[in-house]
Amino acid sequence: MQRQLRRDTRPELVLRRAMHAMGLRYRVDHPVVPGTRRRADIVFPKAGVAVFVDGCFWHQCSVHGTRPAANSGWWAAKLEQNVARDRDTDERLTAAGWTVVRVWEHENMASVAGYVTSLVRP
After folding, report:
1. CB within 8 Å of 120: residues ≥ 6 apart
2. C-beta neighbour count of 96 within 10 angstroms
3. DSSP code of 9?
């Protein structure tokens, strides 16, 4: 698991390039929940928008999410914990007045960039 990229994944880079081309400037891999190690992939601090690009495997996409057959009990608990942490982060950020955007790695990043732009520049 140490070899898994924490930031700068391919879908994240595609989204960042699209948003940059639209004139948006942002912070990358930025802490968003005080007192925790949780970080958003892309953050617009002034607009209060946090963007998370979730991997289908690690965050259990209903379309592409899979579970390994080997050591299935451990993996099931690990992946369920990831999803529960995502929900907790969403709740904390929403309660603090942030707008949370979660996208799957397989989504069209150009469309996502347009949506995020509409949130940042209403």
Report:
1. 24, 44, 47, 49
2. 12
3. -
What CATH code would you report for 10-120? 3.40.960.10
pTM over 0.85: yes
Per the CB < 8 A criterion, the answer to whether 115 and 101 are in contact is: yes
3-state secondary structure of 32: coil
Walk along the chain (122 residues) and give the pLDDT tens digit of each residue: 556 667 789 999 999 999 999 999 999 999 998 888 899 999 999 999 999 999 888 888 888 777 777 888 998 999 999 999 999 999 999 999 999 999 999 999 999 999 999 999 97
Rg of the Cα atoms in the chain: 15
Distances (CA, A) of 14 to 2, 77, 113: 23, 31, 9
The DSSP 8-state label assigned to residue 99 in this structure reads E
Tokens of 92: 């904390």
